[in-house]
Structures are given as C-alpha cells and as structure tokens.
Amino acid sequence: MNDTTPRTMRAITQDVLGGPEVLREAELERPTPGVGQLLVRVHAAGLNPTDTKHRQTGLFLGGPPPVLGWDVSGVVEEAGLGVALFRPGDEVFGMLPYPHGVGSHAEYVTGPARAFARKPSTMSHVEAAAVPLVALTAWQALVDVAGVRPGQRVLVHAAAGGVGHVAVQIAKSRGAYVLGTASAAKHDFLRGLGADELIDYRSADYAEAVRDVDVVLDPLGGPESLRSLRTLRQGGLLVTLLPIGMPELLAEADRLGVRAAGMIVEADHAGMTAIAHLVEEGALRVTVADTFPLSEAARAHAALETGRTTGKLVLTVR
C-alpha cells in the first residue's frame, strides 16, 4: 500500500431502507484490494435508478447496502496480486460487478481489474463516471444479445433516459435505423444524437404506429414488453432490461412468431474497452444532466427520483 494512502475514507452509507433521507456521509475503513483486484481512488461516481431501488428495498442485496454505487471513474491507487492490465496512476473507468460489487459512492473502492478499462483521455472523470452501467447495458443488449447489423430497424424505449440516449448512439454506430419513444420536448435532443424517427408516447400509441422492427430495447418491462412485441417483424427480437414475468412474455412472443430475451448487465472489460473506443472516435457521448458533491448524495437521489432527468447524474468525489 502507498504510505500516503489514508486508512479511512468518506463514504455514503445507510442503516435502514427508505427514502433519500436515510443516506448519510460516514467515515469508513478504506478497502484493501484482493487477488486480481484494483484499489481505485474515486474522482466521480455515476448515479443510476438501480441505486435508488437498492436504497429503498435492498433489492438483490437483501438489506441496506453498506455503500451504494456501481459506476466509477478514478485513478488506480494499488493493484492487487496478479493484476497485469493496470498500474498505480492509471486513469480507469468501469462498472463494479452487478449487483454484489457495489461501493463506488466513496473516496476509494475495490473491484476486479477486468471490471475496468482505461478512461478515454477526451473525457473528464465526471463524464466518464456517467458512462459505464448505461453504456454496458446498451452494448450488451444491442451488440452481444441482439447482434444489431447495418440497415436493421431498432426501437429504443425511454430514448432520452440514461440507457436510452446511449442505446440510440450505439445502434447508430452499428448502422441501424433508430426509432425512439420520448416526450416531444426531448425530440430535438435525440435527433442531435442521431435518432431517425421519434414517437411522442403521450400523444401516439407506438404499438400502433411502429411496425417491422428488427430489435426492441425495452427498459420498461411488464405490460409494455408485451405491447412492444407487436412492433416486431417476424423473427424480430425484444430485449427487456426488466426480466420479470418472462414465462408470459416468452409465450406471447412464441405465439406472435417473434423472440424475447431478458438480461441484467454484467461487468465487462471487453465491453468497456469497446465503449471507450466509441467515445474516442466521437461516436458516443453521455449527457451529464447535473453533478452533486458526494456529501449531497441524498439530494442527488431525490433529483433522480423525479423521473425528469435527461441523461445522467454524477457524484463528484475529488
């Protein structure tokens, strides 16, 4: 360990499940990297809807998380035994293994070396911290699962949201014709990202207006997943990011002659590296809607829960 590395750190923690008010800043013991892990000095950490769900319900963690946060951008402080990809001083960004690798809303975090990639030099730490979870989700859904190809028609729901506005750009980078659902006020924003056709879900029924889609990216789940199947061409694929009620969805997809798949994002060095290349090529940018100091994490959670954010919220740590 670096002799100058403190043995404690500031972190956002909670003792009970509940609203944003349960979050508090505390001084905790700084983690130590294990075999194959990095200790990263956090400069900025992204905030995602799943953070608020875990704060409220414990979700996959089974209780109050000691420290929330999966998105991170920072500098390698220490490399654990067997790590050959990175050295102390390297600037990295990544998503900690979901869901149990939580902990980036702190001054230091540990995680597997292969959960990280080198931060693009063209991005600040704040911008980089906004990228990992949403970009990996979109990349894994559109590239790994759906295999989007040039000329295909891709429908992205909630296209102006965190995952959605990145998915629009990734689909365009694959040569797709991109349709998106969003309120009319966000259409200009999405056209600026390359969306070809937009549907105002408040004034039009996308399930009636859209046909012959090859791939649907669905972060909505439930009834909207079932309705979205109607937009697909024969053999088309819906990828839902809320894989709840899959037996009913799969049965309806089979009845209609289409396909459905449910996925949860995974930490992924190769995916992060591919995303970094898209950023460096100018094919991908993530919109940061606002930033909050680490000490104001509760205020950031409250802002995210309004549902009115275009892009991402980021906690600044250094």
| CATH architectural designation of the largest domain | Alpha-Beta Complex
Helix share bin: 25-40%
Q: Biggest β-sheet, characterized?
A: 7 strands, mixed
Show unreliable segments. none
Explain what the structure shows.
27% of the residues lie in helices and 27% in strands. The chain is α/β, with parallel strands linked by helices and 318 residues long. It has two domains: 8-131 and 286-316, Quinone Oxidoreductase, Chain A, domain 1, CATH 3.90.180.10; 134-262, Rossmann fold (3-Layer(aba) Sandwich), CATH 3.40.50.720. Strands 3, 4, 5, 6, 7, 14 and 15 form a seven-stranded mixed beta sheet that branches. Strands 10-9-8-11-12-13 form a six-stranded parallel beta sheet. A two-stranded antiparallel sheet has the order 1-2. Helix 3 packs across helix 4 (162-173). It is globular, with a radius of gyration of 20 Å.
